Amino acid sequence: MNQPSSQAGGPAVEPDAPEDRLRRFATIWSRAIFPATATSLTRPEFEGHLLPVARELREALHARPFAPQSGQRIGRALVEAHCTDPDALSRTLGVIDAYLVLYCGDPGLSAEESRARCARLQHAVAAGFAHALRERTLAEQEAIARSTLLARNDALQAMHDTEVRFRAVFEGAAIGIAIADLDGNVLEVNDTLTRMFGGLEHHVRGRRFTEWAHPEDRPHVWELYRELVRGEREDYRTEKPFYRGDGTVLWTNLTVSLLRDAEGVPQYQLALMEDTTERRLLNLRLRYEATHDALTGLPNRTLFFERLEKAVTAGDGNRFGLCYLDLDGFKAINDSLGHATGDRLLVEVADRLQSCATAPGEMVARLGGDEFVALTTGPDTEREVDELAARILGALSAPINVDGREFTVRGSIGIVEGPAGERTSAEVLRSADITMYRAKSAGGNRYELADPEADARAITRHGLTTALPAALERGEFFIEYQPLVHLGDGTVHGAEALVRWCHPQHGVLGPDRFIPLAERTGLIVPLGRWVLEESVRQARYWSTRHSDGGPLRINVNLSPAQLTHPGLVADTVDVLERSGLDPGALCLEVTESALIGADEDLLKPLRQLAELGVDIALDDFGTGYSNLANLRRLPVSVLKLDRSFTQGMQQHPCDPVDLKIVEGIVSLAHSLELAVTVEGVETGAQAEQLRELGCDTAQGWYYARPGAPDRIHSLLLADAV
User: Fold this and answer.
1) Is residue 584 over pLDDT 70?
2) Which of 362, 544, 620, 720 is at 20 to 30 A from 507, Cα to Cα?
3) How far is C-alpha 49 from the chain's CA centre?
4) Exposure on the CB side of residue 638, measured as CA atoms within 13 A
5) Cis bond leading into 65, ω under 30°?
6) Kind and range of the H or E element at 461?
């Protein structure tokens, strides 16, 4: 069946009101089925009759949650409107398929979801139509047939009329009718039933009901039959397949009734058969389309989740293994060569993956985009899932030719393996997804096994990421200050502001836990401004309380993301002006790695701040492998020597190589008129050695751990004494 749409070459729909589009849909529908309708209504009157039915169909398409069973009411409404001609159903399904989404689609649904809902509604409408027609026909035909057969025992005077009526109903019925004795021998059949079985009457007449067993019979069918012939029930209904003479299968809705004589003694069986083979094939086709990917033909997300759910809940010692595959760099192919080329590449990848999962208990599915999954089940999945992943990477290693171009496809695979019954399908897929990204971050073209601890860390990172914006609004961040001590006289020279997060569940978190997350989400800019405002305000407070010793310096860290923000200079100036702090009392720390290879555009805001009097410190110096000659072009006034250079000074005697390195860096810095600050000072001997080498300031646990602002206040009072 063709499926036109406004996105795939179908007729364009103007943005009219929903009610206008609904009326257009009802008009198209009435024009399609009116010629096949036995009604006294005019076509406009019939269209008006269809309008509320069309509205109900639209509501079923939009419903949340989606309930396709409501489409059965539309099918029943057609029968009630005397649209009983099979052609009316066929035309209705065609109109729904071609125009329902077009005129009545929900803009909140994706095209794929709208088409899937439309297909399921077609099935429901067909089922409702068939059910209503069957019920109507069965009720009429069974009543007539029962009356006719019982009438044969009436007076001879009525025999002729009864026979005429019986034959009219029996031969003219639209469903198959058969009469058999209580032993199951078929006595009479009508032409409709004969045609259903291939047109040869001898394939039906003279046979016994019990010869029509089929492997797909429901278990209780023959028990119902035995109860009927024993007179324990009056009738039963069931879906039953039959073999035709050519070996093909005829699917029917079968109703068998018991006919009794005037004294109530069972005499015959009356069987009514409705051919449902076409409907069953339609159901199978719709089911296939709903559970398979339209591009690759692989099982889609829906079918995969059904299989995964069975695998993870199987129990009884069963195990499962899941490979979650994402192609490396596939987006670049789509962006550079177009989605058509990308789609052909995906089809080839799908074929190769399908060839890797051919053993019993294995399947491959496409979740969407360039994400695929492979599932294996059985008692030995610990070994099989590794082999499956290796086969997949091996199959992808050979180049793929698309449109004359040769592509080398790489993929990252996350593997989850374990016993059934311990985790839900959602937990398994989440773990596989996390593991896949771990493989991708390790370089790709490899597979990694799931690690519960790594999963927990990833889940925690995700939770922290989503909680960051609200945490800033709720005031969950606070600042601790670590003093900067002048090595010459041991007085407090300033303090470094270190932000902390008081998380409701995880307690106090250091910047290493959330600053990278804030940088990835862009929250580092508002968070950094808040830290700057709080730190400058605190420094201004210290300056007013301890004016005798000159302005107390405050060091604030800048992330690389803040350096590229266009409002950095304006925000800093605004904060300083509103607080009243002298620019010379502010030092902004930038890591050496952030300035490696920095161009003038990146250095421009730092130069502007330096011209205003703000000090710029090069943090973690010595870890970025930068060219020392570049120091001359950087607008920095302070070098913060990384703690890795001074760890050897904690030993006695000191490492002479470390001494030479630090001595050389200090000499170079001073020659460039740069002050030197050392981090990580933990012992008095270490502090003394650094003082002798000419370092200017230091910070570390030897002096004080990071703490509340009052701690700095106490240290300043001690210096004053």
Assistant:
1) yes
2) 620
3) 42
4) 26
5) yes
6) helix 452-474
